[in-house]
Each structure stands twice: as C-alpha cells, then as structure tokens.
Amino acid sequence: MLPTLFTFSKLIWNDCLNKPKKNGSLQQHMDAAQEWLKRAQDQGNDDGVSYGYSIKGGWLDSYRETSGYIATTFFNLAEQQPDSDYFERAVRICRWLLSVQNADGSFANPRYGSDGIVFDTGQDLFGLVRAFEKTADPAFKEGAARAAAWLIRVADESGIWSRFEHLNTAHVYNSRTAWALLRMRQITSDENFKTDLEKIARANLDWALAEQQANGFFNHCAFSLGKAPFTHTIAYTARGLLESGQLLQDQRYITAARRCANAALQLLKKNGFLTGQITVSGDAAAHYCCLTGNCQFAIIWAKLFQQTGDTTYQQAAIAALDYVMGCQDITTDNRHIHGAIKGSQPIWGRYSPLSFPNWPSKFFVDAMLLRMSWLPKESSLSRSGNPE
User: Fold this and answer.
1) pTM score over 0.85
2) Among 121, 125, 141, 122, CA closest to 133
3) How far apart, in whole angstroms, are the C-alpha atoms of residue 83 and residue 51?
4) Burial annotation 353-365 (CB, 10 A radius, 16+ → b, else e)
5) Which of 82, 98, 151, 289 lies at 20 to 30 Å from 91 by C-alpha?
6) In this structure, are residues 307 and 313 in contact, taking their beta carbons and an 8 Å threshold?
7) Nearest CA to 150 among 186, 131, 124?
8) Burial code of 121-156, b = ≥16 C-beta within 10 A, e = fewer?
C-alpha cells in the first residue's frame, strides 16, 4: 500500500506544478499504451483486464464491461501486428467472458450484485461478436446471441432500456448498446431475430434523437439525473449514433452524431484541452479534462474527417490526442503507470480520480490507430478497421 500512496502522491505533486511534458513520437506513445493494456490483463488470476491501477489498492480486479471492448482493440492490433500475441489475448478475454456470463445471457458487475446490467452486457456483446467473426467458434456466437436476446427481453414496452441500468433510469448513452445489437444483427441468419434486434436498437436510437437539444447535446446523458455529463458519456452517445447510422444507412442518426461532435468541438481549446463535463445547455462545467472523453471525441472527429474530408475534424482529433499524450508518462520506470492514461487531468479531477482506468488507454489506442492511418504507409501501423 505504501508504494501505491507514494506513487500517487508524486503524481499529485507533479500535476500541482503543472509542468508541461515533451511528447515523444506517435509510435512511442502508442506502444506504451498497448504494453500497459497487456500488463493490465496480466494482473490477477483470470484472463480479464484489470479495472486499472488506483490509489485504492493498486491493481484492481478484472472489469467485465470494459474487457469486452478491449478484446476488440486487441483483435484490431492483431490485424496490424500478426506476429504479436494480441489475437490470443483477445480470444482469452472472450472465453473468460463466457465463463462469467449469467445464465440468462446478461453480464453483471460483481461490485453491484449478480443481476445483469444493460450497458455492461452491450459492451461485452462487442467482444463476443468480434470473437466469432475472427474464430468462427460457435460458442462465441451462442454467447453473443444469449446476451442480445436478454437485451431485447429487458427493454420496456416502448423498447427503451429503463431497467437493469444505473438508478433504473434510461440513459441516451445506450445508443452504444444499440450499436452492439446491430453488430449482432450482422452475424445472425435468423430473420426474426434480425427484426427484433433492429426494432430495439432503433427504439433506443430514436429516443436519443428525441432527447437531443438544439445545441447538439442530450438530456439523460449523465450517470445521475441533474448532473452535468462527462465527455465520456456524451461521446458514448454520439459514437453509438454515428456507428448505428452507418450500419442502418440512416442519415438521421449520423446527422445527430455530427451535431454533437460539432458542439463539443466549439469547446475544444487550441492545446487540445476539452472540459471534462458539459451541461445540457452546452456550457463547460469543469476545470479538469476527462482524458477518456478526449480520446473518444478524437475517434468521432477522425471518423467524420474520413467521411467528409473536412480537415477541421482532423485537426481537432490531432489536438485532442496531443493533449492526452502530454499527460501520458512514457519515461517513468514505474511499470504500474508507464504508458497508462489517467482518468482525469489533473489526476484529482472528478472523473475516475486518482486512478488509471483501463478504458482511457483502450480508446487512446483506437484513436491512435485512426490517426496513424493518415501517415505514409511506411510510417504507420497501416490502415485500421472499425474499432468498437
């Protein structure tokens, strides 16, 4: 415990001093984040990925929700680096997910009990669908189908997920879970199942559209009612709409995602800092940066650049990632934090304070894959796919 306290005391002091770091090369930052994610998986006695490294006890237990979508990142890295162990790591994560899947098909967070959680189940669905696509192992398809069937069953009479959610209330960021259902739709041949998957996905996507304000932001986007949402959940919402719109070829969802991305872009500072929380009225509500949200919006802006050719989006993605790299320590000898991405900058910010969760690094790697695809082929990891 004492070494952990010393580590975080030093981090707090460094952030108090606010000394700017000199960024390394894109490849150095990318490699450091990838290696940290592998170290996070190597913690504990299972094949999941640790929640992260925290002042609350150092390395924490594996986190089912984010392990599911980290598996998709490892599959993407395996495509770029076929001689690596990322494919084997991704498969191990997904087999572990099958071993902890509830009998009803859902996924729980043991911190909150054994009942399934809609959002967590959706994120694990991404991993299982991708594992089936990459291995053709029917166990992954069966597990994915059971998870998707549970998501259909627990929707309310209007098709919205208002139960088995945080505070048993609906959240627009489940547009990302709707995207997961549409990914399941891509691997099933059951036409009735396809119809049900699309019906529930569209119900939640349409509800998100109805909750979008004229300024581009959303009601019901925070974890708790009445709070200004983190950029993390705002980006979840926009990304779910963007990707679902592409899969359904429905411009309404793509337009809504772009409106949100444009609104967030107006708050992006020249140095890449994006306020960690934004009110529904579009005002900055924090003096810290949610680094996860920076990475997620970088992905959205990068994808919009690819779709539209508008270099404003490209420049925004680069600035947001440059800021994150300036907060990433790739020189320390401390392997617990080398290459990791903090929850907040400064580290005591309200989003996942005093910790290095696994998902900021996941979204950083996904964003960097897109950014590095813009470089000459000999200078990059080559073109990336569509990271979940």
Assistant:
1) yes
2) 141
3) 27
4) bbbbbbbbbbbbb
5) 151
6) no
7) 124
8) bbbbbbbbbbbbebbeeeebbebbbbbbbbbbebbe
Residues 218 and 211: beta-carbon distance below 8 Å: yes
Note the pLDDT tens digit of each residue in 317-347.
999 999 999 999 999 999 999 999 999 999 9
Q: Is 186 helix (H, G, I), strand (E, B) or coil?
A: coil
- Cα dihedral 303, 304, 306, 312 sign: negative
Domain ranges of the chain: 2-379
pLDDT in tens, 244-281: 999 999 999 999 999 999 999 999 999 999 999 999 99
Cα–Cα distance for residue pair 268/242, rounded to 1 Å: 20
Look at residues 92, 76, 143, 11 and name the one whose alpha carbon lies nearest to residue 299. 76
Burial class for 256, CB neighbours closer than 10 Å (0-12, 13-18, 19+): buried
- The domain defined by 2-379 folds into Glycosyltransferase (1.50.10)
- Between CA 191 and CA 334 the distance in angstroms is 52
Strands 289-290 and 58-59: unpaired
H or E, element range at 355: strand 355-357
Burial 27-46 (b: 16+ CB within 10 A, else e): eebbbbbbbbbbbbbebeeb
